[in-house]
Amino acid sequence: MHIGKSYRLTDFLYWTRRDLYILTGVGAVPVILYETFGLRWLVLPWTVVSLFGTATAFIVGFKNSQSYNRTRDAQHIWTNIGNTSNTWGIMCRDYFGDSPVARELVYRHFAWLTALRYQLRGERVWESADAQHNAEYQQYYTIPERNSSLEAELAKYLSQGELQQIAGVRNKTTQLLAMQSAAVKAAYGEGTVQLAQFIELQRTINLFFAQTAQSESLKDTPYPRQYSIVNTIFVRIFCALLPFGLLREFDSLNRAAPGLLHGHMVWLLIPFSVMISWIYTSLVQVGESTENPFEGNSNDVPISQICRAIEIDLREMLGEKELPPPIVPQNDIII
To answer: Minimal CA–CA distance to 164: which of 179, 184, 146?
Structure first.
């Protein structure tokens, strides 16, 4: 997540520069054919192109709105995870006191958070984090889940027996919550907690199950492909038609152009068509980088930072003094 005042224009131009190269070529070809080779019949009515551009703008706006909603939903889910985690830490501390059970339950919760964030950072075929324009931008920040293995991180929180127990399972988050439930049930059976406390602990575990499912649903359900492909096709068609629709408009400026500009105004079509088309292609790229909120792009929900903040809070609840450092922004980006 970018937490600075704004992106610099130079950063944004660098991020979208490949589209600018292509759009310059797309704008230059019609002008060369029209002006140099005299193919005057290449012009298209501006009304047709403008209507097509208006329809395309609605489609692009719809996709970006839905992409933002996906990121907003992801942020809401992880805000709830943070709140519920703090509740879990308070209950473990107050219900179990200084017993080792409290620490085991809290540390197993850290393991669940770790398994969940690694699961959400996994690659999906429809994601764009490793697309060339996004991969280049990753030089400005670090994705923690790509720097260490899940097994090494889980070893910080689980006993050797628990590590072996979940080593071969497919869904580690579900198994870790099942282990929490079994531990709470055992504590109730031993009389460590009362019935009301047991019910509250189980209710909180159920919330973690629900939040896991919500996160997995966003991760494993892409923005509908039919809308995505229509968006891309329409933008590309509009960018290809735009220079042809502007040929006659810019050529007509020659009537009022003075001096050296007279007879050459049509060449101004190239920069102006590039600017207009760049607006559309940039919106497509922004929407594409926003629709998957967990993949590791610079605008994603900072689940690594949220997990670290939760861990610090819960360790302090247990009275620990040696705390992990908070994750700080890199170049105004926090992951």
So the answer is: 179
Task: Answer yes or no: is pLDDT of 236 > 90.
Answer: yes
324 Cβ neighbours under 8 A, 6+ residues apart: 308, 311, 312, 315
Backbone φ and ψ for 212, nearest 5 degrees, come out as: -65, -45
Sign of the alpha-carbon torsion through 57, 63, 66, 67: negative
Structure tokens at 151: 């097994």
Average pLDDT over residues 288-301: 91
For residue range 181-197, list pLDDT tens digits in order.
Answer: 999 999 999 999 999 99
Q: Is 273 in contact with 29 (CB distance < 8 Å)?
A: no
> 171-175 — which CB contacts under 8 Å span 24+ positions?
172/115, 172/119, 173/112, 173/115, 173/116, 173/119, 173/212, 174/209, 174/212
pLDDT digits (tens, 9 = 90+) for 32-76: 999 989 899 999 999 999 999 999 999 999 999 999 999 999 999
Q: At residue 239, what is the residue type?
A: C
Q: 5-9, 32-36, 166-170 — which is least confidently predicted?
A: 5-9
Q: What angle do CA 312, 159, 116 make, to 5 degrees?
A: 55
Q: Which residues contact 195 (CB under 8 A, 6 or more apart)?
A: 188
Spatial separation of the C-alpha atoms in residues 326 and 335, rounded to whole Å = 12
Q: Which residue has the tokens 């735009």?
A: 242
- Report pTM: 0.92
